[in-house]
What we know:
By secondary structure, the protein is α+β, with helices and mostly antiparallel strands. It contains 1 helix and 15 strands; from the N terminus they run αβββββββββββββββ.
Amino acid sequence: MRAVATWISYLLYFAISLLVVTLVLVAGMPMLQRAKDVSIITSAKNQLQKMAEATFDVSKAGPESTTEFSFKADEGFLVVDPEADKIYFTKNITTGILAPRSKVKEGYITISTNVEVKSYETQESEDCCFVIENSHLRVKFYKFNNSQRDTNNIIKEILLKDTGEVLEFEGLEVLLDDNEATKRGKITTQLLDVGDLLPSASLSEFVNNSEAFGGAGYCYNVKYTLDSEADFLHIIVEGLERC
């Protein structure tokens, strides 16, 4: 009986020890991964900074000047975009290292997270288009410049990128107090953010709904915002006043 009791004690001790080691590993792995991510990001940032400095030195040296530069990272991807004349380093990181949808400039480089939105203007027609898009949506807005309209709908098209389908809808109208007259007037649209690698982008629609233009006597802005990785638009009415 003593031998059996001894073996049971050993097994219990081994089981408890194994449990303690497992708990330590489970608790410590996120911290280890976070420390690893911080190390990789810091290394990549320093290397890109030196790469930028070397590039400027070569540009000052004159035509046909060259230099060599090596870049090393344990994880992540280095992407050269000749059309945009930019070099990117991308990596998925654990939460808590950088604030989501942030953008900080340090020297020659920019450190950012969740910046997949781009906003630009096209010349498809006289009134088309302002475009805001991310990985899920592409939204085309009409270009109005103090244009007299019977409706304040300014969305021409919404493409659902996940399915490749264009959303079938008759437009989006904004009513105040369910009053049909509040959607009429002179309308001006303007992109508030232009460029790529943006955390979000917004377009402003100013509606002059005064009675002189067949409206109810209001002036207001409608702000349309698309965030990185979002599959929906934020729509806010602001600046409402009598006019």
